[in-house]
Amino acid sequence: NILIIGACGQIGNELTLALRHRYGNERVIASDIREGSENLMDSGPFELLDATNHDALEEVVAHYEIDEVYLMAAMLSATAEKFPMRAWNLNMGSLFHVLNLAKEKKINKVFWPSSIAVFGSTTQKEGAPQSTMMEPNTVYGISKLAGERWCAYYYEKYGVDVRSVRYPGLISWKTLPGGGTTDYAVEIYHRALADKKYTCFLKEDTRLPMMFMDDAIRATMELMDCNPKNLHIHSSYNLSAMSLCPREIASNIQKYIRDFEVVYRPDFRQTIADSWPSSIDDFQARNDWGWKPEFDMERTTKEMLAHLKNPTNK
Ligand code: VAH
Predict the structure, then answer these.
(1) Where is the NAD-dependent epimerase/dehydratase domain (predicted)?
(2) How far is CA 99 from CA 56, 178, 209, 238, in A?
(3) What are residue 255's phi and psi, to 5 degrees?
(4) Whose CA is nearest to atom 1 of ligand 1?
(5) pLDDT (tens digit per residue) in 265-290
(6) CA separation (Å) from 245 to 65, 85, 116, 185, 209?
(7) Among 11, 14, 76, 267, which residue has the most ligand 1 atoms within 8 Å of its CB, making it the best to mutate?
């Protein structure tokens, strides 16, 4: 059976629904520190679980005969700057608990998300390579870089089958993101529909790697399905789809909502965004498991406006 930790989060919610659709509701156990959307709660087993509580996690793994864990719980970049030690403890403590369960053969496969936040301002801005200079100066980026190194260590030393991708900023409509620097790319669609005005917390020309959630979920499942002998990266795979800035998204929305206005008021998140690359080279993912994105900005905007206007299955 499969356990999703952090199932109420922006990725966790959609990953849970996609895995339930694929493997059957009863085989995919959702867990989080708090209850989630009706769709999530009504479609299969749910456990309240603090990802930093080793014994509680071990109990859920044993009770539900879990053999695969998707660890999606983390404190994201903006919030982590406000609570550095809480972020470090959550992001790292939960990872060690899951890696050690795998080392003890209590589970046999792990997915753990990394992020483009592992790159820093000394990384090349365009086409950040799979293996390169990585000097993140955010708590979140430091925790993700350290986490990647531990994943590679547990693979090399203990043969743990842990797989990971460096997600770009994710654009989705089912679940709001929480505390990220790329959250503007979700908020902007909500505000465009709600009152045709948005105050963006990043400068209009802040270009960042972005991806529509359907692509991110598919990439995750493709990586987890892949024959392990094809996988050459055991830290975390670069993953790329689009490279967008607020001004581009705003003008794309204005094609559908003519009088939509955006004002730009950069805040502390601008410094975080400026430390990240504008685009990513994901050659290794394309080479190892045939990764190919399907959503560009046009298609993303159409999906977002259509679903946010008439939320079918929230
Ligand atoms: C954040 N959405 O903004 C996350 C992500 C690349 C950004 O890691 O913190």
Answers:
(1) 2-225
(2) 15, 25, 28, 21
(3) -65, -25
(4) 180
(5) 999 999 999 999 999 999 999 999 99
(6) 44, 31, 16, 9, 9
(7) 76
Q: Which residue has the tokens 């989630």?
A: 36
Residues in the chain: 314
Whole-Å CA distances, 241 to 127, 174, 210:
12, 20, 6
207 dihedral zone (left: phi>0; alpha: psi -120 to 50; beta): beta
Residue in 64, 70, 140, 237 annotated catalytic = 140
The token duo for 201 is: 């917390």
Task: Identify the bridge partners of residue 166 per DSSP, sorted by sequence position.
Answer: 114, 238
Give the E-state strand segments of 108-256 in sequence order. 109-111, 114-115, 162-163, 165-167, 169-171, 197-200, 208-212, 237-238, 242-244
* Contact yes or no for 177/76 (Cβ under 8 A): yes
Residue 181 to residue 206: CA distance in whole angstroms: 11
pTM of the model: 0.97
* Binding-site residues, ligand 1, Cβ < 6 A: 76-77, 115-117, 140, 168-169, 177, 180-182
The per-residue pLDDT for range 158-203, each reduced to its tens digit, is 999 999 999 999 999 999 888 999 999 999 999 999 999 999 999 9
SS3 at position 312: coil
